[in-house]
Design a protein that fits this description.
This protein is α/β, with parallel strands linked by helices. It has 10 helices and 6 strands. The chain has a 6-stranded mixed β-sheet with strand order 3-2-1-4-6-5. A hairpin with a 2-residue loop joins strand 5 and strand 6. Helix 7 crosses helix 9 and helix 9 packs across helix 10 (253-265).
Amino acid sequence: MSISIQWYPGHISKAEKNLKEQLKLVDVVLEVRDARIPLASGHPQVKNWIGSKPRILILNRLDMIPESIRQDWSIWFRKQGEIPYFTNAKEGQGIKAISKAAQEVGVEINAKRKSRGLLPRPVRAVVIGLPNVGKSAIINRLLNKKVVASARRAGVTRQLRWVRILETLELLDSPGVIPSRLESQEDAVKLAICEDIGDAAYDNQRVAAAFVDLLVELEYESILNSRYGLDALTMTGEEYIFQLAMTRYQEDKERTATQMLNDFRKGLMGSIPLELPPSDG
């Protein structure tokens, strides 16, 4: 079953333009991704935008993937020359390590300023990433109070604004940015399953069916059997949604699809990664 997902709201185009301007002012970039889909949730243009500026890679929703998979991703990213910082912004896990890493960049910057006879200043960081990956929640955790709107849906932050975290650190909260065209529909489907793009962009039944197919492909289909009492190995994702609707949801396929996606998004199915590290990494 083919799916075509494209989502590029007007405010994102404006936000991207503003963000590129603000990037000239920042010293370090905190790039936030979804730990369930560390590759699909990366914006392909981020590295071009930031050039040689230091970048701290944050994989949020650490609680939604198994520990063994977290370790596999950690090894894979380190082989690519990157150190991933895993966080659970909801509970505050991993936040201190990010703050420390950002401040260490500031120490270097201020050492250079001092050598030029300039006074020290706070390090300027920007939080960047796709919608709904947890950027605002991370800022709120860094501040230890809620100053930035945060919700479990895409597109909550609409404007750029600076927030003072510490005497040594200032943060720019930016709206989620998404490629103007989602080249990989495979990635777009994963973003839809994880609710990292707006729900106006996709059909719940198709995405839920693709989710079932993906779990079978990743050999996590037993989770479906234990939760819904229906074996996914004997049918396609589309057939699975149909059969589940017939047996449990009064033949309502839309309700079935929505329920399944929400069960996954709320963690009710347990810790499930939707991507595994590439074997060639």
